[in-house]
From TrEMBL:
F(1)F(0) ATP synthase produces ATP from ADP in the presence of a proton or sodium gradient. F-type ATPases consist of two structural domains, F(1) containing the extramembraneous catalytic core and F(0) containing the membrane proton channel, linked together by a central stalk and a peripheral stalk. During catalysis, ATP synthesis in the catalytic domain of F(1) is coupled via a rotary mechanism of the central stalk subunits to proton translocation. Component of the F(0) channel, it forms part of the peripheral stalk, linking F(1) to F(0). The b'-subunit is a diverged and duplicated form of b found in plants and photosynthetic bacteria. The chain crosses the membrane at residues 30-46. Its main location: membrane. It is a single-pass membrane protein. GO terms for molecular function: proton-transporting ATP synthase activity, rotational mechanism; proton-transporting ATPase activity, rotational mechanism. It comes from the Eukaryota. Keywords: ATP synthesis, CF(0), Chloroplast, Coiled coil, Hydrogen ion transport, Ion transport, Membrane, Plastid, Thylakoid, Transmembrane, Transmembrane helix, Transport. F-type ATPases have 2 components, F(1) - the catalytic core - and F(0) - the membrane proton channel. F(1) has five subunits: alpha(3), beta(3), gamma(1), delta(1), epsilon(1). F(0) has four main subunits: a(1), b(1), b'(1) and c(10-14). The alpha and beta chains form an alternating ring which encloses part of the gamma chain. F(1) is attached to F(0) by a central stalk formed by the gamma and epsilon chains, while a peripheral stalk is formed by the delta, b and b' chains. It comes from Laurencia australis. One of its GO terms (cellular component) is proton-transporting ATP synthase complex. The keyword Lipoprotein does not apply. This is ATP synthase subunit b', chloroplastic. It is found in: Membrane; Plastid, Chloroplast thylakoid membrane.
């Protein structure tokens, strides 16, 4: 019985010494398990995920850089094309203006030419009419002379 009592007293001492914060060999073992798990998880999960995230961030950065470069280039091209378009419009307006001026000059020359032709036709018609008038007067004078000779001849016969 005594042995039983000693055994129970040792068990009760063991129970009273163990508690929530028992600093025996299990605590360092748990710390080593935690560190081993942390290192293992770091190599298995954290580094690959980190590498994927870094690669994704690099891809996004490169994409943004190339997109901004493309945008700058597109803006430059837009400005260049707009200036070329404005210059082309000015040239086209100048060509149209010159063509209108040339057409106006041609029209005015044609009108002057037509007026000169009309004046020449009038002068020619007037001269032709004067010639016909003079011829008509001469023929009338001749006929009047003939008629007056005939009248004179008839009067003298009577």
């Amino acid at each position: 019985m005594l042995t039983l009592q000693i055994l129970f007293s040792q068990i009760s001492e063991a129970e009273s010494s163990g508690g929530l914060f028992d600093f025996n060999a299990t605590l360092p073992l748990m710390a080593l398990q935690f560190l081993a798990l942390t290192v293992t998880l770091n190599f298995i999960f954290y580094k690959p995920v980190s590498n994927v995230l870094d690669a994704r961030e690099e891809y996004i950065r490169n994409s943004l850089t190339s997109a901004s470069a493309s945008l700058v280039k597109a803006n430059e091209l837009t400005k260049k094309y707009e200036s070329n378009l404005a210059e082309s419009r000015k040239k086209a307006q100048k060509i149209i203006k010159n063509a209108q001026e040339e057409a106006q000059l041609v029209v005015s020359e044609k009108i002057k030419e037509a007026q000169k032709d009309a004046e020449q036709l009038l002068i020619d018609a007037y001269q032709e009419l004067n010639i016909q008038k003079e011829q008509a007067l001469k023929s009338l004078e001749i006929q009047v002379g003939i008629l007056s000779e005939q009248i004179k001849g008839k009067l003298l016969e009577n």
